[in-house]
Model the fold of this input.
Amino acid sequence: MSLTQKLSKKGRFSKVSWLTMLNISTNLRDIEWLVYILEEFSRINRVEFPIQVIPQESSTSATHIITYGVNPSESVCIPDRSYVQPGGKIIKISRNLFILKGTEGKDSRFACNYDLFWNAFVFLSRLEEYQSEIRGNKIKSYSFNHPLEDKSAFDIPVVNFYFNELEKIIKKNFPNLPFGQKQKPIIEYSHDVDYIRKTLQLRFKQTVFNGFNALKSFFIPSSFVRQMNKTLSFFISNPSCWCFDYWEELEKRADIRSVFYVYAKTNKRDLKSWLIDPSYDTTANVKLQKKLRHLIHERFEVGLHGSFHSATNEERLSKEKAILENSIGTKVRKVRQHWLRYEETTTPHIHNKLFKYDSTLGWNDRMGYRSGIACRYRPYDHKNKKPFDYMITPQVIMDANIYDYGAKHVENMSEKAMDILTGLRLHKKPHISISWHQRVCNSDYQWHELYKKILRHQGHKVT
Done:
C-alpha cells in the first residue's frame, strides 16, 4: 500500500488536491522506513497535499518529483545513503544539524548535501538504540550508554530541522504545494508520583545520590561543604511529601492542567522492587484515591507510572493499569515507566496494546531530545517494519536532569532549559512533556521555583 493510499483513506485530502501530488521517486526495494518518515513529516509539518513513493521507472509521466537516488539527475534530487549504517559517528554541518558520517552528498546538484530521509529515520526510530540492544548493550535511558559519540546532538530536535529543510525544498521547487501554518507549542506538564511520604528507601537513595554529588566537588571546598550539608540534612529531615495541593493551586492559577503519573502496587515484589519502586498502595490509600478523583474532576489527568519490572512484563503492566483504573474510576490512556525504563524489544509492544500515549522516552541523565524530535510521533517497530499505533510525547526536561545530574551547574542548566523551550517556536507542531516530581516543592528539594519560572516563560500567570 502506498503512502498516498494510506493518507487518502483517512479523508485528509479533497478530490481537488489530488491534482497536486508530491512523488518521491526511488529504486529502493525496502520502502517501509521511507514511507514512515514521509507520514511523520506530513503530520508534523502540516502537509496539505498527498505524497506517494514511486519506482523510478514509473516517474516519467509524473509531476512534482523528488528523486531519491545515488546519483543526481535533472529533477530535484536527494542523495540516497541508506546503505550507511549508524556507528556512533556524526558530523555537525551547521548550528542545528548533525548527520551520520558517510551520508553526505558529493555533488552540488543535489537539493541538499546529505541524505535527509535516512538521517531522519535513524534518529526518529532510534535505530542505534535498537541495534545496540539487539547486540546485548542496553541503553537503560542513560545517554552515556548510547553509542553516539557526540552527545550534544541530543540537545537539538534534529529531526524537526530535517523536516523543516524538506519543507523548504518542496516550497522552492513546487510552490503550488500547500502547507499549514505553524502551531503554538504544546507543553504537557507532568508530575511523577514516586513518594507521598518520606520512606526509608527514599532516604537511602537520595542520600547516596547527594553524597555522590558531594564527592564530585571534593576539590572545590565551598561546593563540597554545601553538598555535604545538603546530604546530611536530607537524611535527618522529615517534611511532608504530600504536595498535590501545591501543584493544584499553582496550576489552576496558571490556567493549566498537568498529568499525574501514579504508581499502582501489585503483590509481586522483590528486593529490587522494594528499593526502586514507590511504596504506596492506591488500592488501600483512601486519601490518595479521593485526591486523585478530585484532580480528575478539576480536569487534571492521571496516567500510570509503571513499575520498574512492568516495562518488560505485559501481564504485570496490564494488572497495574487495571488497579489504577479501579482506584480512580476512569480509564487510563497515558503511561510513563518508572526510572524511564524502556527496552526496545518488549516495552513498545506492550504499550501499543495498553495505551494511547507514552511519555517514557527521555533521558535520566540529561535534558534533550532522545528521538531527535520536539513533537508527538509514532515510534517505529523495527521487527515488523511499521509504525506502532500509539503516540510518544517526548519528555525533554525533567527536574532531576538539572538538580541531581546537573547539581554542579544548576544555574547553567536552568538557562539551558529555557533555551530549549524558546527553541520550540522554530517548528511547525511542537508538543513535548516536562516532568517535575510531585514531592519536590517541599523543604528537602525546593525545585519548584524553576517550574514557576518555566510557567512564566510560557506566558502563564504565576504568583
Observations:
- The mean pLDDT is 92.
